[in-house]
Amino acid sequence: MTVNELGREDYPLFSKHPELIKSPTGKSLDEINLENVLNDKIKPEDLRITKETLKNQGEIAKNAGRPAIQSNLERAAELTVIPDERLLAMYGSLRPYRSTLQELLDMADELENQYGATITADFVREGAAFYKERKKLKGDN
C-alpha cells in the first residue's frame, strides 16, 4: 500500500495498519510494550511520533475531505526533526513582544534552510508581518 492510497477506511492507523507505524528508532508497535519498558529496551525516543506517521495521517485526512487537518499534520511532520530545546525556544520567541522583525525572519530562514520546514517557515513569516502591522514586535510595547 502506498501512502496515496490511504483513506478514511484506514483510520486509525494504529489498528488498521500497525505495520506502517514505527518509532524514530525503527521499533514496531509490537516491540513497544510494558515488558520491554521494564527491561529497559524502550527509551523515550522510541515513544515519539515520526514524520512518516504524521504524513500518513495527513493523507487519510486529505482523502477524507479534511484539508485543514492535513495541513496541520504536514506542519507537525516538519517539526519532528527540530530538537526539542530549539523548538521550545522558537515557541517562546513567537510570543508577542519577544522578538524583533529580523529575529522572526531569521527564525523562518533557519526553519526553511536548516530543517527543511518550508510550511512552518512561511507560517512564521506570515506571523512576523502580522506582528509588524499590529505592533507586537519587541520594543513596540
From TrEMBL:
SUPFAM superfamilies recorded for this chain? Diol dehydratase, gamma subunit (SSF47148)
What NCBIfam families does this protein's entry cite? PRK15443.1-3
Q: What is this protein called?
A: Diol dehydratase small subunit
Task: Write the lineage as a comma-separated list.
Answer: Bacteria, Bacillati, Bacillota, Bacilli, Lactobacillales
